[in-house]
Amino acid sequence: MNENLYSLDAYSRSDLFVGIAPEKLGDIFCRGHRCLLGSGESLFHEGDPALKCYFVLKGRLKLVKLHEQGKEAILRYIDSGELTAAVSVFQEKDYPVTAIVVGDAEVVGWDKDTMLKLMLEYAPLAVNMLGFALDRIDELQTRYLELCAEQVEQRVARALLRIMRKSSHKISTGVQIDFRLSRKDLADYTGTTLYTVSRTLSLWEKKGWIKSGREQIVVTNPHALVKFAEIG
Amino acid sequence: MNENLYSLDAYSRSDLFVGIAPEKLGDIFCRGHRCLLGSGESLFHEGDPALKCYFVLKGRLKLVKLHEQGKEAILRYIDSGELTAAVSVFQEKDYPVTAIVVGDAEVVGWDKDTMLKLMLEYAPLAVNMLGFALDRIDELQTRYLELCAEQVEQRVARALLRIMRKSSHKISTGVQIDFRLSRKDLADYTGTTLYTVSRTLSLWEKKGWIKSGREQIVVTNPHALVKFAEIG
DNA sequence: CGCTCTATTGATAAACCTCAAATACAGTGG
DNA sequence: CCACTGTATTTGAGGTTTATCAATAGAGCG
Asked: In angstroms, how far is D11 C1' from A198 CA?
């Protein structure tokens, strides 16, 4: 029962369910399938038939898109309280991206039919989903422009700040990223190489803007980083 | 009356209105504001309060996003039969992009309230909009990956093909892009400079893949271009 | 015909990637 | 507690891609 309560809590905190009576959340919850996942597991894979969409109850997913020559781009981190793979509901397509679990995670999945029924039954759900889709378009467009117009260091700064604003906690020395984030991850997120990210972070460490270790970063001077991200 | 018929025709051909009875289109049409636009005019500008969303009846829009240092990215061309600025309906935000008219165009705009009423009255409209939003996310993600992983020439090839598939017509010597497309446009679309695009097109012209003039391109060997776009 | 905008092309420089090798670190099992 | 092993990270050197700058040529328009 504790588990159920926990999950319902994650539901009700999410903006996805704004406008839906809290007592209905149990119903929505029951009609999906719960799933526990370990670090590095993939929830769905690019090219698989898109059968379900998922709500993250706990933990985090990394959405990546793969390129032929082995390169990959991190499109987004999906924190708990967020929905992903909404495509599955509307189109008879394969997943266009891969979702990889970061740390441990717990998700609920609904298949196409169930989700369609839920959307008809709980109208705000569809509207909220459209709202989120538009948010994601905006974010992608912004990052697309940054990738076009800015140099690597500036993009890394923006990436680090974007991740920090979404998933970090204060510690004595600064603001720490909540999850394991390697140089390679940051590189894939910003369209560069792990070498360049490493050099960049080393430089910032010398300047006292950050403090970084193995797959782990603390931003010690967010203000300086913000300024740099804006001016370049 | 001829004009009305023309416009209704554009409506009914658009996938946006799938699921809505054709005889209702007149009603939807009447509740928006028609607007004729000349080449280079901007329909809305990044940073303006987002009051309306627009359906393109005729002509074409260019969606651009501007960067501080004068650079700009072309996010998308919007052909007739497509909707843009759906953000305006859902969020109290400013437009995140600028829409510039390419050639001459005719659009219909609905303000937020009208659009919300229409969506409630004609349910398929909301669902179709969500479907299109998801399509756009997919396209942006794909282009984002390409920008991360591919070199300039490959990206230019993909861009030219993407534009060709959407807006071209056959002529005796090949497939001609429907609208004026400068080297600068292609550069802004692919995240490079007009110089590099010029060099690339010159090369392809020597190879006999294209035939280009001032703001105008004919693809004479689409097959070769497709192959190049895939292999790089 | 002259004006303006677009395109071409060469030379140069900058940013960044690639490769290679060394080093640091976390986790594991003795 | 320590050595061991597999990653992650750092850093240098060198090369490639692509941007930048500059100058010229060409095309369309009044």
From this structure: 10
